[in-house]
Specification:
The chain is of the alpha/beta class. The protein contains ten helices and 15 strands. It folds into two domains: 199 residues, 3-Layer(aba) Sandwich (Rossmann fold); 188 residues, Rossmann fold (3-Layer(aba) Sandwich).
């Protein structure tokens, strides 16, 4: 049986691929960037132990189950994967990732989770809202396995959410990150904005509504007239790159949209390509700092995925895991924001680091209220008190 299991794991387990870009840490005390992923899953530390945790030879204690895509997507999976690398490499603990065979399928997610556990996984990292149902099930089927769920709270298809003592839910204030992106775009001088989301899950909706509110706030600060700032808004219905997504973005640029905030995972690559091919189209990236992919990306709406994953792994391996709890990453703990490296503001024409620091401080203090509501994919159903920004909803 052990030989058969080893053979199956050798055939199916997927380990690190080379990442294309690394995010800039947002938190002031964040560690330096980690090297890109490799095909080496890592070796256990001497004695195969870490504090109160131990594992047998050949076991891989840390496993990330991807949101179907790969860990070099320059977006959500990559940010979470870099958190695994940051912690596992620093502590010499074996790690791996597994890609489910279908996106958003509870059965496919459960199969991937089962595979990871059969390989010795003691702690799972599951990034994304599409794990909501599978983690609700997995935390009860595997009560001895610890689960770090990002961007969601475990829940059945129709019923109340439930977080087991072996699970922690890490949420991010996407509306604040989106707000900062919209605010920066208008303060920089742009008046015709676009938002292209992937699938209208809660996190993507909050990115979009926050983007509009940030534009509204900046328009008020600048004393702009009603309708002077416009936002065209839609969803692709997918997180995958496609010719259709590129064509859509290209048509927006041709219509006069100056800058597009894209919160669509891998589909962002299609929007980047459209911007590169346009005379002057600009882009705002998402989740991680995507500036390295195109010179047209002036900033990115960040979620501090890497550090939050690394922190939760550290809590698990030191016996301090906060099972059954929800952790909110927002401006108060530097869990969201825009990139702040020395050259991060070089692509802006007018928006400055001083302006960013000022508005970020207001967000963190609560002086700027930003809606965290979601539900309808139409942002006008959520933002009912806009006074300055005109929104065109393309449903």
């Amino acid at each position: 049986m052990k030989k058969l299991l080893a053979l199956l794991l050798t055939m199916v387990l997927v380990v690190g691929l080379a990442a294309c870009a690394q995010p800039q840490p947002q938190a002031p005390a964040a560690p330096a960037d980690e090297p890109a992923p490799t095909d080496d899953p890592g070796e256990p530390a001497a004695g195969n132990s870490f504090g109160i945790i131990s594992w047998a030879d050949g076991e891989v204690p840390i496993a990330l189950i991807t949101d179907y895509g790969d860990i070099d997507d320059e977006s959500y999976n990559q940010g979470a994967w870099e958190g695994v690398l940051q912690f596992a490499r620093a502590n010499n603990i074996p790690y791996q990732y597994i890609r489910p065979t279908e996106r958003g399928s509870t059965e496919a997610n459960m199969n991937a989770i089962s595979l990871a556990i059969s390989g010795g996984a003691q702690v799972l990292v599951t990034p994304g809202f599409l794990f909501t149902e599978s983690i609700y099930e997995a935390q009860q089927v595997y009560p001895d396995v610890t689960i770090i769920l990002l961007d969601a709270i475990p829940a059945p298809p129709d019923g109340d959410s439930y977080i087991g003592q072996n699970t922690v839910a890490v949420l991010y204030a996407e509306e604040q990150s989106g707000f900062l992106a919209g605010y920066a775009a208008v303060m920089d001088g742009h008046r015709n904005l676009g938002f292209i989301g992937g699938i209208p899950v809660p996190s993507v909706i909050r990115f979009g509504t926050g983007f509009i509110e940030g534009a509204e706030w900046a328009a008020a600060e600048l004393g702009l007239a009603q309708g002077e700032v416009n936002v065209r808004y839609t969803y692709l219905g997918s997180f995958g790159a496609s010719p259709e997504a590129q064509t859509l973005a290209a048509s927006w640029y041709a219509d006069g949209i100056e800058i597009i905030f894209v919160a669509a995972g891998g589909a962002g690559l299609s929007i980047f390509a459209a911007a590169d091919a346009s005379p002057a189209g600009l882009v705002i990236g998402v989740d991680v700092d995507q500036a390295g992919h195109s010179e047209r990306i002036i900033t990115s709406a960040l979620k501090e995925l890497r550090n939050s994953v690394a922190d939760m792994l550290d809590m698990f391996f030191t016996g301090n895991f906060p099972g059954g709890e929800i952790f909110m990453m927002d401006a108060t703990n530097y869990g969201v924001g825009l990139p702040t490296a020395a050259d991060s503001f070089d692509r802006f024409e007018n928006f400055t680091r001083a302006q960013y620091d000022a508005v970020f401080a207001e967000l963190a203090s609560g002086a700027i209220p930003v809606s965290d509501a979601y539900g309808s994919p139409n942002p006008l159903d959520i933002l009912t008190d806009l006074a300055l920004v005109d929104v065109t909803w393309v449903g």
